[in-house]
Design a protein that fits this description.
Length: 178
């Protein structure tokens, strides 16, 4: 996968970063699905996900007209091709709007957590990314800064991974991207 995080003090259209996304998809390891999460003008979060390649998505231009000050763009190449589908497409938007989460790489110890999340009806896909998302949902209640929680997630699951969280809010020093 490829992961792009952007933030600006002044609003921009998502299409302003599409050339970067196109390059990441073309020259990177992506091209199987994509998604974006962003802050709305009121500070809340929104997201779009597609199971097509970024270059082939008919709604890409429509999504690109969205104005924001911070966003995560995730371009997908699954670790296993059986992990293709909407349930495994990122970024994930937490159900109450507390954050959006995306990851690339591999969370080596995700299986330790998967069974409990599945038994609770919280796992819908096959990828390690969704397990990381569920872990973040639980850890969010600790009210620690997002970067501390991301470090704790990496410690708990190990592996080689890049992790990103987008929090609600407008431009401010240090946020809303972690």
């Amino acid at each position: 996968c490829e992961l792009l995080a952007v933030r600006a003090d002044e609003p921009f259209e998502l299409s302003d970063v599409w050339p970067l996304a196109e390059g990441l998809e073309r020259y990177g390891l992506a091209g199987y699905a994509w998604g974006a999460a962003w802050t709305r003008p009121d500070g809340s979060l929104d997201a779009y996900r597609a199971t097509t390649a970024f270059r082939d998505d008919a709604r890409r231009d429509e999504v690109g007209r969205t104005e924001t000050t911070a966003a995560i763009v995730h371009l997908r190449r699954p670790s296993r091709f059986s992990w293709l589908g909407m349930a495994d497409t990122q970024p994930f938007l937490e159900g109450t709007g507390r954050f959006a989460f995306a990851h690339n790489g591999e969370l080596a110890r995700h299986r330790r957590f998967r069974d409990a999340y599945r038994a609770a009806g919280r796992i819908h896909g096959r990828a390690d990314s969704e397990v990381g998302m569920r872990w973040m949902e639980d850890a969010w209640a600790l009210a620690r800064p997002a970067d501390v929680l991301l470090a704790a997630l990496h410690e708990a699951m190990g592996g080689v991974a890049n992790l990103a969280v987008l929090e609600p809010g407008g431009p401010q020093p240090g946020g809303p991207l972690r």
